[in-house]
Each structure stands twice: as C-alpha cells, then as structure tokens.
Amino acid sequence: MFDVMFKLKGFFKENWKDYTISLITMMGSNLFSVFIPFLIGRMIDSIVREELTSPLLKTFGTLFLISLLAAYLLEFIWSYYLFTGAAKLQRGMRKKMMDHFLKMRSTFYEKFRTGDLMARSTQDIRSIADTAGYGMMVLMNATLFLTVIVLMMGMSVSWKLTFFSLLPLALLAYLFGKLGDIVEKRYSAAQEAFSSLNNDVLEVVDGIRVIRAYVKEDDYVEKFHQQTESMLKKNNRVADANALFSPLTKIIISLSNVIAFGYGANLVMRGSLSVGDMVAFQMYLGMIVWPIISIGELTNVLRQGSASMERVEKVLGTGDDMESGGEKVIETVDDIVMHGLSFKYPSSQDLNLDRIDITIPKGKTLGIVGKTGAGKTTFIRQLLRQYPLGNGEFRVGEDPILNYRGKAIQNLIGYVPQDHVLFSKSVRDNIAFGKGSATDDEVMESVRIASFEDDLKKMSQGLDTMIGEKGVSISGGQKQRISIARALIKNPEILILDDSLSAVDANTEQKIVENIKRVRTGKTTIISTHRLSAVKQADEIIVMEDGKITERGSHDELIGRHGWYYTQYLRQELKAGADE
To answer: How far apart are CA 325 and CA 565, in angstroms?
Structure first.
C-alpha cells in the first residue's frame, strides 16, 4: 500500500523544505488544537471546586482564543505547502509523460492506444498527485494528531481508560487492510474501463464522417451506452467499497465511546478521575473521529495511487526498442547506402523488406513505385528511422547510420507522409511549422513551389485562413500541397514524398515535380507514388514487390524492359487519355 510513497521518494527529497515546513507547522497546529480540551477540562474543574474567578476566566478565555487562532494559522501554512507540492508533482509527472511521448517512435504507439495514454496522463497522474497532497496530509496530520491526542489522553487523564477505550481500533485497522485490497482491485478495473471508453470516443470523433456515411450512428450510441453503463458499474463498485470506511469507523468509535463512558464514570465514582478530566477525555475521543476516518480515506487514496502508479510506470518503462545512436553530428548528407537490408514489423511473421541493395547518390532523385503493400512505405520508414534496423547495412556517407546522434539525420529531412497531419491553426502557421521562424516571403515561396498559390487567393483570409482541426475545412489536394510546402520551407537535405501527390490532378502534379526539381539542385529527393508520371524525371526508379526490389533503372530503361513498370505505365497513360 505504501509502495507509491516509496516510489515518490525522489520527489519528496527534492521538495524536502516544503514538507519540513508542513510537518513543523502541523505539529504546532496539533499541539494548540489538543490544548483546547485541556483548558476546558481545567475550567470545568475550577467551576466544580468553585475556584473560578473573573481574572482566571479571562486567562482561560485568552489562552483559548490564542490557541484557536494559532491552530488555524498554522493549519493554513501546512495546507498551502502540502497541496502546492501535489500540484508540482502533477505538473512534473505530466511533463515527464509528454517528454516520453515525444521521444518514442512507432513501435511504442503500437503497444498503447491513444485513449489509454490520455487516461494515464490525466486521471492516473491526478490520483498519484492526491497521494502527495491529501495522502501526505492524512499520513502526517492524522497520524501525528492521533498520536498527540492519545498522549494527552494518557498523560493528562488516564492510561488505563485510554487503553481500554482504544482497544477496538485494532479491529478497525484489520478491516481497513482487507477493504483496501478490495478498493485497489476494483479501482484498477474501473481505470481500464475508462481507458477503453477514451479510445472508442476518439475513434468515433476521428471517423464520424465514415460512421454517418454508413448510417451507423445508432450502433455507436448503443455501444457507448453499454460502455458507460459498464464503467458506471465498475466505479459504483469502487464507491461501494469506499463507502464502507465511514460506517465501520463510526461503529468502532461508538464502541470506544461506550467503553470510555462506562469505565470513565466508574473511575469518577471511585474518585480516581475528576469531572473535568472526564469531559476532556470525551472531547479527546470526539477529536479522534476525524483522524480515524481520515486514515480510512488514506487507505483508499494510497490504494488508488498505487494502482495508478503501476499504470503510469508501465508507460514510462516501455521503450520503442530503437537502437541508441552515436555522438557524431552531420551537416550535409552524402550518399545513402543500404546493403542486404532486411526488416519485419514486430507483429509480422514474414519479412517486410527482403535484402534491399541500393545507393542513393547525393543530389539525385529516387522514385519508388509498386503495387499496394509492396513495401514502399516500409522502405521510407527505415529511411526515417521510425522502427529498429533489421539485418544488413545502412550507411550515410562512410558511417553507419547508428554512428550519428539520434536527431542528426532527422533534422536534415523534410517529410510529407501519406496521412497529412495539419494543425488547428492558420495556413501560415502550418507551413511555417517546418522552419519555425519563417518570414512571409519564405512561406509564399514554398506556396508557389507547391503550386498552392491559386488556391490561396481563393481563401477569404489568405495565409491567415484557419484550416480547422486536421484540415477539416480544406480538400485533400489542398492538404497535400500545404504539407509539401511545409516540408519545402525547411529546404531539407533530403526531401521524402510518400504518395503525397495522389489527391492532385496530373497537371498540378507535373508543376510540383518540375518546381521541386528546379529548386532542389544538389539535394536528395525521394518520391514514393502509385502514379508513375510523378517519377518520370527521377534519376533512378525502383519497383518493389513483396518487400524486394524487382526492377530498377531510369524511366526509359524500365520502359524498354517491358516488365511491371512498362505495363503499369501503359495502363495509366491509356486511362489518362480516356479521361481527357
């Protein structure tokens, strides 16, 4: 149960000053709080013995007021430092999670779904932060307060009465332990249900157009209803277990009150205890209720925090299996060489790349073609280092790629993926993202190269036009050209277009290809496509099938060989002629 506290020892050590201040002020607050019943007991004894005078009453009143104000002031101080610490922990853990997400490559995101990561980054971290805030408050304050009260009950009243009155608390501690185990198991199940619901909601939002097109709204509403009902039941089971802490505490405390009143009355009758001591003891016993209930809640908080810590640690402890890079830096890209490179995805049984041998000379254009599933995108993913290297050799210049720093090669690449990721910002911001501090002139130059100038003129606010979430307000072809402009503004050493011209017409495609060839003299360009017209001007074209290179050469050379490239080219030309 306390393992979550142990795992947070680094945080507590880092913020030891805040927690030391909290502990000292908490001790002071507790002492002033338990001093109040002692004063009341002495005042009642003075009344019973008819010794209460006006000056003595003023003294009692002054001490009572000072104790009350001091207790509240010190309580404010320790509460401030404790709950500020919880906010720091929450911020720090979320930053740590975000840093981890940004460093991870594709294999990591195949192990966790997006909604699950969101749940662990929000609700689970909030539960862990509760242990550093409310949990520490209860652990320090309730236990310390309870200790001080017990000492005052024994020292100022009677140790025998204290022992017999608190004897039922042993049973309560046992019941709390058993109940805590139940809470932890049920809470873990509820969190898993929350993660699953998050995943499905995100999928519905992303796929709402398809869902509507297939008139599946009612099906998803019913599925959502079933999931929320299931999550409600699991959360209710957690709440049912939590709800037992309070009545158990009250029953045991009531038993303690019965013992205290009965045995205490007997001691008063025998003259072993004064009336004032009996009243003070009952007040102390009443003050025990809050610490006992809080300790029950502490059990709950720690169990939930422990379950959440396991979920968060699982994410932070999961890597992407990528090889660590070297320390070499690179400012310009020489020839890219792959020799005998084979690779398969973690979930694949067969090779997805099979003994790839290719040299991409610096400043040349490589075209990659092949039917769907031939391995074109997998080849590009290896160039981008999105997955661990397979068997074989992969060099940039004279050095293996693993000799370079992790981001050294990526900083030299401009990449336009098949799925165009655009942000809920303006056209300008989306294009300038590729460089960061781009001027409007640089943005417009990239717009012209990507043949997006005419479309931009039709937009009501030009570069300031908001494109909506994921580019929802623009067409597929416009998304592709904004993505191309974003990659071009970086003026990268290597430009990779992964089927990035499929949504534009043939004339626009040719303009873009010609513009890229004109402005990228001396820089390497790699174009993967289904439309062979996009790679006609490439220095070398490779044809892929089942992860292998089956044909290679220039456009004219491949046409002369009458293979797959020749057949596919004729089909596409005939189709283009028919469309015209």
So the answer is: 38
pLDDT in tens, 8-67: 888 888 888 888 888 888 888 877 877 777 777 778 778 877 777 788 888 888 888 888
Whether residue 494 contacts residue 412, with contact meaning beta carbons closer than 8 Å, is answered with yes
Q: Which two tokens stand for residue 407?
A: 């981001």
For residues 137 and 5, give the distance between their C-alpha atoms in angstroms, rounded to a whole number.
13
Residue 439 backbone phi and psi in degrees, to 5: -85, 165
Give the whole-angstrom CA distance, residue 235 versus residue 50.
59
Fold observed for domain 336-346+355-579:
Rossmann fold (3.40.50)
Q: Which phi-psi region, left, alpha or beta, contains residue 553 (left: φ > 0; alpha: ψ -120 to 50)?
A: left
Residue 579 has pLDDT above 60, yes or no: no
Burial tier of 331 (Cβ tally within 10 Å: 0-12, 13-18, 19+): exposed
Give me the chain's average pLDDT, please: 83
DSSP β-ladder status, 540-545 and 399-400 = unpaired
Cα separation, 378 vs 374, in Å, equals 9
**CA angle (522, 524, 530) in 5-degree steps:** 135
| Least confident stretch, 166-180, 449-463, 494-508 | 166-180
Nearest one of 419, 146, 444 to 298, comparing CA atoms: 146
Query: CB burial class (10 A; 0-12, 13-18, 19+) of residue 23?
Result: middle
Neighbouring CB atoms inside 10 A of 280's CB total 26
Q: CB of 201 within 8 A of CB of 115?
A: yes
Whole-number Å distance between alpha carbons of 425 and 115: 23
Q: Which CATH superfamily is domain 3-316 in?
A: ABC transporter type 1, transmembrane domain (1.20.1560.10)
Q: Are the CB atoms for 430 and 423 separated by under 8 Å?
A: yes
The answer to whether 234 and 190 have CB atoms below 8 angstroms apart is yes
Neighbours of 93 (CB within 10 A): 22
Helices (H) and strands (E) in the chain, counts: 23, 10
Enumerate the domain spans of the chain. 3-316, 336-346+355-579
Question: Using one digit for the tens of pLDDT, what is the confidence trace for 473-497?
Answer: 788 888 888 888 988 888 888 999 9
Q: Give me the pLDDT at residue 6, please.
A: 76
In 3D space, the residue among 398, 291, 294, 385 whose CA is nearest the CA of residue 341 turns out to be 385
Cβ within 8 Å of residue 519, ≥6 positions away:
449, 488
Take residue 202 and report the two structure tokens written for it. 């995100």
- Pair type for strands 353-360 and 336-343: antiparallel
pLDDT score for 330: 81
Torsional sign, CA 146, 152, 153, 155: positive
Task: Assess whether pLDDT exceeds 90 at residue 366.
Answer: yes
Closest CA to 494 of 284, 308, 331: 331
Contact 446, 520 (CB under 8 A): no
In angstroms and rounded to an integer, the radius of gyration of the C-alpha atoms of the chain is: 36
pTM of the model: 0.69
